[in-house]
Amino acid sequence: MNKFSDEQFIQPRICAGASQILLIAEQNLIFCSRPQRKRFGMEEKMREELLKIIERNSRIDLKELAVILGVEEIDVVNELQALEDEGIICGYHTMIDWEKTSIEKVSALIEVRVTPQRGQGFDNIAERVYKYPEVTSVYLISGGYDLLVTLEGKSLKEISGFVSDKLSTLDSVLSTATHFILKKYKDHGTILTKKYEDTREKVSP
Amino acid sequence: MRDMLSKQAVGLKPSGIRKFFDIVSEMEDAISLGVGEPDFDTPWHIRDEGIYSLEKGRTFYTSNSGLAELRQEISNYIKRKQGVVYDPQHEVLITVGGSEAIDIGLRAVINPGDEVLIPQPSFVSYEPCAIMAGAVPVIIELKEENEFRLTAKELEDAITEKTKMLILPFPNNPTGAIMERKDLEEIAEVIRKHDILVMSDEIYAELTYKDKHISIVEMEGMRERTILINGFSKAFAMTGWRLGYACGPREILEQMTKLHQFAIMCAPTTSQYAAVEALRNGDEDVREMCMAYNQRRRYLMNAFREMKLSCFEPFGAFYVFPCIKEFGMTSEEFAERFLEEEKVAVVPGTAFGDCGEGYLRISYAYSLDNLKLAIGKLADFVARLRAEA
Question: Which ipTM did the prediction report?
Fold first, then answer.
């Protein structure tokens, strides 16, 4: 990891002579060992690489993560901490194909048209919706409707109950359209229906 | 019946890979680290373009040298990457993989008895293609102490009055070695001095893990004496599409186009349409794959360090080339025993030239999980060998 690639460091404010630059360098080195000095953390490119890896595998061993990124383990720990502090990493979830369990789950997408409120836009109504624990996501959408709400419930009845009793009765909700999910082929970038199979010749030049 | 076969063809040694392949393919449950092609699928948008071309009924021959559109894209691509301009009309030829370009490139310039310099360890095709073109192959043995780069001195020492061409196989299969600007400048000087041609096989150009790839054609006076070979197999994970290309001076390309025309007619049409899409919209795919390869490369280098297996750090392609001299076995013995005892296939370095003795080619065109499993077995095997000693 190159800690000296930060432009602000390469162009120090006062550069009287080599010894002084060295002095500034030393001071900055002390600073950048503290995680809160994010400016001196990982390069942007490596940060992206780190995020891409853990987005696909958040259980990856820290030591292994450091090895494949070519940095020290402590740098990975600091960077992850910084990413959490900045709210860039918001959680570590597990992808589960509930279909394969004996637990009954029903998911639905609901298109919601609402009247935005003066001074608040859509934020207030979105908040009222996302506070329900059965709601798994709420997006503000461009196009024919305003909010896309995804919902998980135990049964069809539970979901329709939520829509008719809770969602539709909110003052600013104009209309809803509920779509039940019948089968998940791919979720969060992962294909659920097929396993990777290596069909290459076993040895080739 | 009289002896009907070509003495030259009969005289060719069968590929060392083939022999090993036969053993491995009989073992059902073997894990392989012996593959010389990407593990990624061809990105979907590229495949989709191939499918679309079939749907549209684009199933006819293209012009001999390939789709004009594709040649234009290749010309743009090389200009973007290497800063060198090739005229898409006369200086770009679409071939059936880089392999065909190697074959016809040699046949286009060789007269009987011309010497062709082939640095080894390297890809298995150069030597037989040179022989079949009527050349005398002259092997330059690359050394681990030079990180398997070609040095100006090694080149200078191998050149005679008969030397016609140097084959430059970097980034290298099987060593993973690269040539950096300084290395290229030094050999370019020798090449100019002795007035020889270069065939630069840059099929792994997109897969480098230090700085971006530099081509010999960027060096002064090299463009006019170089056949630049590249293709879609490695960069875009398109091995089965069989699509490569050659760029070079018009006089040489004209001869190559003739050979291509009579032997092949044209490269597969479907593949050519897919390749246009690859060059137009494939940069991000290449970047992602390159990033994944690099992570695996770092993983392997670290694993070798941990098991104290000597290996120079390669910065190109998707191979590592660890040294197994400490075990007092030949590469083939090591690979065979490793396969037998641990059911993991690696390719003995000797499959890529005699000077590959004492080395193994390990491919990292595998998922990290797969590599972990296989490398764990290698660590066990190495520990067992050391305990025996």
Answer: 0.89
